[in-house]
Design brief:
- The protein is an alpha+beta fold.
- Helices cover about 35% and strands about 10% of the residues.
- It has a 6-stranded mixed β-sheet, sandwiched between helices.
């Protein structure tokens, strides 16, 4: 579903934060595979719209604005989403610019939603060479309608989605020519989206 990122050799906290942000951005970019999705991946932001009625599936990530262009870029982006009438989230992470983007977003009518969801990273050299599988846990490729339904149930349990959002995305997954989304188990969600602003 996207290009693999190189293995990090710089294990500083700042580089980990950048990598976790980049992983989140790659996820939202992948929504472009859904029928009818609109992705605008510019130097200033990643804007994505799927039409699925849940803020997770419509919004902005990787905003790299300046104090000089923030207000106008945000107003234009909010108007784009208003015209489409679906809920949105504007993800704010450690690489978001400007640092005080929240005040611009609130002025544009979005409200602050703070989440404690951790971003997770690990120095791979600390892992043992052999890892025993966890009992009862399997990671499987979503290959058919039945596994797409199971994947949707897992998604709902992790992200507390409403059924219409789950059903919309599962329907889209079933319609993909090559289903490449991996089935995850609800051990721990690893979201960097520490703050998002919702309309």
């Amino acid at each position: 579903m996207g290009d693999s990122q190189p293995v990090l050799t710089d294990l500083s906290a700042a580089r980990f934060a950048e990598a976790i942000d980049a992983n989140t951005f790659a996820l939202f970019s992948s929504f472009g595979q859904l029928d009818g999705a609109e992705i605008d991946d510019s130097a200033t932001m990643l804007r994505y719209y799927t039409g699925i009625p849940h803020p997770f599936f419509n919004g902005v990530a990787r905003a790299r604005l300046t104090p000089e262009n923030a207000a106008s870029a945000i107003d234009k982006t909010v108007q784009y989403f208003r015209e489409r009438g679906k809920p949105i989230a504007w993800w704010i992470g450690p690489t978001t610019q400007p640092d005080d983007i929240g005040r611009y977003l609130e002025k544009a009518g979005l409200r602050l939603f703070i989440s404690d969801s951790p971003g997770m990273a690990l120095d791979m050299s600390l892992l043992p060479a052999e890892l025993a599988p966890l009992p009862g846990v399997a990671i499987e490729r979503v290959l058919d309608n039945a596994s797409a339904e199971t994947w949707g149930d897992t998604l709902v349990s992790i992200y507390q989605m409403h059924d219409p959002a789950r059903d919309s995305w599962v329907a889209e997954v079933k319609g993909l020519d090559r289903i490449q989304i991996r089935l995850s188990v609800p051990i721990s969600p690893g979201w960097m989206g520490s703050r998002s602003l919702r309309r």
